[in-house]
Design brief:
The protein has five helices and seven strands; from the N terminus they run βααββαβαβαββ. It is of the alpha+beta class.
């Protein structure tokens, strides 16, 4: 079995991330994992790969990147609500919110099709939580599919499943949209070494 490692998405890991996104047509939807990002400050017409690369190099895009050697096989995107303000079912989300907004959101979990069903998505999510802990911790929300045990096309699992978030210590807060839910967890700050 391969020895996976997790590293933050930054300028030093950009090429590995880009190769994985390219392999899958820009991460399946061609969005390069930019849909959830703020549009404020985006140069007109800049989208997809150039926009994501700019965000990464400027420190405005965060993800835990799972690597098999030097090859990226998965990522879990996270960031503050200011960094990732766009979420699906936003009106319903706001109308049913009873708690303070989170400090962080987990918006995308993407796994190379050749590595699915090997626990890599969970590794990416745990990697994101570790990076959040190192950044000071806080309340984290995710918006996964609530599949209720039904088989779902990977195309619709861009935010993974409720059961994956439960395995990572999240609790169900409420439903959102037809098949999604809001999951929350508090991540404590990592101890300084």
């Amino acid at each position: 079995m391969s020895e996976y490692t997790v590293k933050p998405l930054d300028a030093s890991t950009w090429d590995a991330f880009a190769r994985l996104a390219d392999k899958h047509g820009g991460a399946g939807f061609g969005c390069w994992c930019t849909w959830f990002h703020s549009r404020v400050g985006r140069p007109e017409g800049e989208m997809g790969r150039p926009w994501k690369e700019r965000l990464v190099r400027e420190g405005n895009a965060h993800a835990a990147l799972v690597l098999d050697g030097e090859v990226a096989v998965a990522w879990c995107q996270f960031g503050s609500p200011d960094e990732l303000p766009r979420i699906f079912h936003r009106k319903e989300y706001e109308a049913t919110r009873t708690q303070e907004p989170p400090d962080y959101r987990v918006t995308c979990i993407f796994v190379d099709r050749s590595c699915r069903r090997r626990g890599v998505a969970g590794m990416a999510l745990r990697g994101a939580l570790d990076l959040i802990a190192k950044a000071g911790g806080g309340v984290v929300e995710g918006y996964p599919q609530d599949t209720q045990g039904k088989k779902t096309s990977p195309t619709f699992l861009y935010s993974a499943t409720r059961s994956l978030f439960e395995q990572a210590g999240f609790t169900h807060d409420r439903h959102k949209g037809k098949n999604h839910c809001v999951m929350r967890r508090t991540v404590l700050p990592a101890e300084a070494s």
